[in-house]
Design brief:
By secondary structure, the chain is an alpha+beta fold. It folds into two domains: about 1-50, no CATH class; about 65-148, no CATH class. The protein has five helices and six strands. Strands 1-2 form a two-stranded antiparallel sheet. The termini are far apart.
């Protein structure tokens, strides 16, 4: 993981050559790789992240990898937060466990967060999202008043 992290080209998310844009900070963790902050950009690899840290308990809106191959532990940690927007998994054999075990609106399997069919509803669970289901059909219904 460190070798791959050190090879990432980070910078302005608008630049096509950028592989990694803005990420969030975290305190209380062991930093394994940190090339230095450049504006809002802070590509890092960290370990031993405390369960009550910002990185775990808030929505980081950055690429986060939970390394333990202990799915029940990872899911329990994730489900213990006030948020449930989306998750991602690149292991098809573990996909059903993620779908059934995580309290999130979307489980991405081999896809980036944000991929969705426009007809499907999307928001977040718990304190995530904007509270209004997105997607073409749901959005149209939101702007209509039904009468009986």
């Amino acid at each position: 993981m460190l070798e791959k992290a050190e090879a990432i080209r980070f910078g302005d998310p608008q630049d096509p050559g950028t592989q990694l844009g803005c990420v969030i900070y975290d305190q209380g963790a062991e930093i394994l790789f940190h090339p230095g902050r450049q504006g809002a950009l802070l590509p890092i690899v960290i370990d031993k992240v405390p369960q009550n840290s910002v990185l775990v308990m808030e929505e980081p809106f950055g690429p986060i990898v939970r390394v333990p191959d202990n799915d029940p532990e990872v899911m329990a940690n994730s489900n213990s937060t006030d948020f449930g927007l989306a998750s991602g998994n690149n292991d098809l054999n573990r996909a059903n466990a993620s779908i059934n075990g995580l309290d999130v609106d979307t489980c991405n399997i081999w896809e980036q967060p944000g991929y969705r069919i426009e007809m499907s509803p999307f928001t977040g669970l718990k304190d995530s999202g904007n509270g209004v289901k997105e997607g073409v059909i749901k959005a149209m219904k939101f702007f209509k008043n039904a009468k009986t």
